[in-house]
Amino acid sequence: MMISNDTALMAHLLRRAGFGATRNELEEYLALGYEGAVEALLHPSEPNNMPDDLIRRYHVEQSELRDLPGSAAYWMYRMVTTSCPLEEKTALFWHGLFATGYAKLNQARSLLNQVDMFRRSGMGSFEDLLVDLSKDPAMIVWLDNNENHGEAINENYGRELLELFSMGIGNYTEDDIKECSRAFTGWTLGNAEYMSIRAAKDSIWPYGRIAWHFDYRDEDHDDGEKTFLGETGNFNGEDIIAIIAKQESTAQFVATRLFQFFAADEITEFGDKAIQAMMATYFSSGYEIRDMLRTLFNSDYFKSEEARYARVKNPVEMVVGAIRMAGSYQNPALGIENVSRNMLFMGQGLLQPPTVEGWHEGSEWIDSGALVERVNFVAKELSNVKSPGVRSIIDRLEADADAGVLDPVGLADGCLDLLGPIEVSEATRFVLVEYAARQGDLDLKGHQQGDEAEQRVGNMLRLVAATREYQLA
Amino acid sequence: MTTNKREKSLIVIQLSGGNDYLNTIIPYSEGRYYDSRTTVNIPQDRVIPINDQLGFNPSMGPIKSLWDEGKVAVINGIGYEHPNRSHFRSMDIWHTAEPDTIGKEGWLGRAIRDIDPLGENVLTGINFGRGLPRALACPGVSVASVGDLATYGLFPDVQDEELRMFTLEAFSKMYGGAAGRDPVMDLLGQTGKDALLGADILRTAPGLYSSSVEYAPDALAQNVKSISQVFHANLGAKVLYTQHGPFDTHSGELLSHAKLWNEVAGAIGSLMEDLKEHDTEEDATILVFSEFGRRIKDNGSGSDHGSGGGAFLIGGAVNGGLFGEYPSLAEAEQIEGDLRSNNDFRSLYTNILEDWMGLDAAPIVNGQFEKFDVFKS
Q1: What does the pLDDT look like over A229-247, one tens digit per residue?
Q2: Cβ–Cβ pairs < 8 A, chains A and B
Q3: Selected residues 415-444 of chain A with any CB under 8 Å from a CB in chain B
Q4: Chain B hits for A357, Cβ within 8 Å
């Protein structure tokens, strides 16, 4: 079967800018043309995600959003049902980069508020995003900026802002960290002392978990003169961020991290051209993330063969991708917490990155324990012939086949096509065809839900989901 | 694969949720215990005495028998400075041996890396349960997570055995083939083969094992039985890990805590009997720990998050006895109404790593810590 290059390229774009796409979605995006699809993704409109009132009717724990499992599941619903996948993907990117975890906060709602902030500001100006981040209560507690006082600085946030969130190590001095920290004194949260005691004591009493809000305390701010990266003035936090934003190293950092999340784990010479172009866009657009992503998605590198399958799917992509493809969890269902727990089993618990460095992406996702979990989850999800998405695949296979009959090659190629299209090695394809051939031609005429003919499709989808290639985005 | 000289293994039972230490090792002659625990207490006449000050919870009968045989070391007042009362954070601290900053590697993950630096045995470390505890997580270290030994491996939901066999066979072919195409594809291929191999080897374990010991039907006892099967199959597993809970007894504690300890003590009793039957008592040591203890005062129905817990080391090679001072209940000694730990948990880790596993502990636990005398010399 010939797969058109347009379809393969669009599927590639949606694996990166989204969580993969069903054939129906793919056709909608194809109708817009490649650049039109990029624009649609870059401008999220109404996400049409599962409404809160519906969720809360089924999930008490997703009403208060105080504990971790319910809150992670709440975000899962959003990712599973959104029609603006890049919005969620970008939020996930920032969640991994500005990694803030439940462990220290005991405050899931504030974490979800942070994710909301990523939705709001995550594709805008990087400078504005850093200001929002510095005012984010979850971040303030996570990196102790509530302990950063005019009289006695706490460098935790100041250091990570420079090292992990913007320029990267080697581009500033220890003195710059101190001066940066001084500028962020007084950036705290309302009723900070009480709230931090509550966080440390993991206490939900007497009023449940109260969502935090930002508070600026002028009397606790060190308004003295500061010298930061060679510039001198009575800087406050916003001034420091303005200086950070104009650094070449910041452009390099943001472009590289976006590239590695959206394009490829490893940077080749060709890939570096895209990074250079993104850096140029960073400056020409006034630090706009949306424009950098546009540059990336429209680059020759991104559209090239080299960029295809150049990333190991992270567990969220594995899980959400399979669920969206299968069309399950479109309505509230108790299993959703279990689904988000499965991502943790694979090494990526939403709202609980292991450290402030976030997750180590790429090939570090792959170890034998995690691989078993990854394969088992997607294999089970995509082989379930009762799921609406799988039923739609079966219907398409029948419609595309000559008189509803598929030979082994047709069955293997058809499943590869409709789950992606996924391009696999000749060796892998040979095994898939051989597996299909065990039972000869498949006649789908008059198939009934769950009958043997349908189950044979389910078995083939299971095997495609278990390929090495499926592990890659 | 089978050697005569069995190497030493560590079996870890994690009590998740914060075990109430005051009701585990009970200071039953201390008036302040009954003053603080007006409801959630163990009456004097039900305590199993260790000496005239401390005693075991009445649900810990099998552990008391092992204590009488000198096989139980009780480490009192274990914890770390500046206790954190969040389950997640405190467990993280125990897992990474890093109380002050957010740690990156699990202490047992590091130990496994030191034991098997080239990753030659895919079963050096095994977790029994889903999801890897951070204690075992370390970049580059493969650890199998076995939810259920009977169905462990790929495609457990495929009921039809013939279909499952064909699917596994196809998987094996897809992950085999010549290396050198691409490093990530090679890594996936190798990992897929490791997973199949691990599953194949693990599935042989129950067949290599026979025992007259009957384990209870609860989840912990069944996981401990799996541990015994894998341990006795001589597959080179050095770290076998499982957890039990929830010990987060904010309410209805007396009933739930008794049930949990019945299960823990029962599973440990069965395992020790099993080891005795196989003449392997000297080859395995069991560590039991929890992320924190609980408040000194009860809340009328249960107890809230506290600090200063205890840990147990159990086995034929263990030097039985009480170690570390039991924290004082005197008000002046408390930290915000909690027991003050007086032993760093990394001391015990150092003991285990150096005296049991023969490893250099300092780089694993991030420093030098004074050891207890918990192993027979």
Answers
A1: 999 999 999 999 999 999 9
A2: 129
A3: 425, 427-428, 431-432, 434-435, 438
A4: 104
Q: What is the spatial distance between Cα B334 and Cα B338, in angstroms, rounded to a whole number? A: 5
User: From the CB of residue B239, how many other CB atoms can be counted at a distance below 10 Å?
Assistant: 22
pLDDT for B4: 38
Quick one: which of A17, A24, A8, A6 has its CA closest to A392?
A: A24
What is the pLDDT, as a whole number, of residue A321? 98
Q: Which domain holds residue B38?
A: 9-153+195-365
pLDDT at B154: 93
Helix axes A408-418, A426-437, angle to 10 degrees: 120
Task: Assign B2 a pLDDT band (cuts: 50, 70, 90).
Answer: very low
CA distance A428 to A207: 57
Element (H, E) at B35: helix B31-36
What mean pLDDT is reported for chain A? 94
pLDDT greater than 60 at residue B214: yes
Query: Length of chain A, please?
Result: 473
Q: Note whether A200 contacts B84, CB cutoff 8 Å.
A: yes
pLDDT tens digits along A168-219 = 988 999 899 999 999 999 999 998 888 877 777 766 666 666 778 999 999 9
Average pLDDT over residues B164-191: 89
Segment (H or E) for A232: strand A231-233
Give chain B's domain count: 1
Enclosing H/E stretch for A105: helix A102-105
Beta-strand runs (E) in chain B: 9-15, 25-26, 48-49, 55-56, 72-79, 125-128, 144-146, 239-244, 284-290, 309-314, 321-323, 343-344
Query: What residues of chain B, 292 to 311, have a C-beta less than 8 Å from chain A?
Result: 305
Q: Which of residues 97-116 of B touch A (CB under 8 A)?
A: 102-104
DSSP B105: S
Peptide bond preceding A354: is omega within 30 degrees of 0, i.e. cis? no
pLDDT of residue A438: 94
Return the CATH number at B350.
3.40.720
Q: Which of A354, A432, A471 lies at the smallest CB-CB distance from B188?
A: A471
ipTM of the complex: 0.93
